Amino acid sequence: xxxxxxxxxxxxxxxxxxxxxxxxxxxxxxxxxxxxxxxxxxxxxxxxxxxxxxxxxxxxxxxxxxxxxxxxxxxxxxxxxxxxxxxxxxxxxxxxxxxxxxxxxxxxxxxxxxxxxxxxxxxxxxxxxxxxxxxxxxxxxxxxxxxxxxxxxxxxxxxxxxxxxxxxxxxxxxxxxxxxxxxxxxxxxxxxxxxxxxxxxxxxxxxxxxxxxxxxxxxxxxxxxxxxxxxxxxxxxxxxxxxxxxxxxxxxxxxxxxxxxxxxxxxxxxxxxxxxxxxxxxxxxxxxxxxxxx
Length: 294
Fold this sequence. Notes:
The protein is mainly beta. It has three domains: 14-89, SH3 Domains (SH3 type barrels); 96-149, Roll (SH3 type barrels); 157-273, Alpha-Beta Complex (endopeptidase fold (from Nostoc punctiforme)). It contains four helices and 25 strands. The chain has helices at 157-162, 181-191, 200-206, 253-265, and strands at 14-15, 27-28, 31-35, 39-43, 50-55, 59-66, 69-74, 80-84, 88-89, 96-98, 102-105, 117-120, 124-125, 129-131, 134-137, 140-143, 147-149, 174-175, 178-179, 209-210, 222-225, 228-234, 237-242, 247-252, 270-273. The chain is globular and about 50 Å long.
């Protein structure tokens, strides 16, 4: 049975590559687009529940436009859903990503000008030039110190995740304005060039290699529960977005393990150690780059 989160098919259309595998009235190739809103909710149905979020500059394939909604698949992690049609624009070729927790897009290379929009960690921009301390993009100017080249991945995903300490917990969130446990893992992996699916169950299946129960934990390992995932910041500390604190926090590992099990979420289901790549979930079409809510 196909996973609707990564299978681009609805009651009216399906991706052309699914012909012969799924039933649909019409099969379409889809058209490329990119996210032009600062942040766009990816919904399970038009106007429905949020599954994940897409950041400025992310690429998508649009399979249907209908009544103000676009049925899309994200290029970076293969997640399928609906976004507001006005959150999308022409496809772009980003050159840089936002490496700071957040930044602003200005109409001129002047920090005193009123900003046009805020951009989260992980957003993607096309840098066309430099003006003093600012990078010029088609949509405005961004402080150069807040950007990093897309082709230069970071080395420490925990350091990336730590930039979001204190960020409010948000179910399905993927940004500096709100994030959940799997969003925190994805945004950190993506910055390090590690392909990462969007939800914790997918991440448990795709990321890293299993660790034995007696294997010492080290920085960058992942612990999974049913519906939750956390970074190991060091052998005694977890870093995760969690609903207990309603924020991204660090907490003592032993205390967190006891609390999570006591609140009814059970024991750890997997201990994983990351490599430099991950296995895409079956049926997805995502590519290397930056994207269940827990």
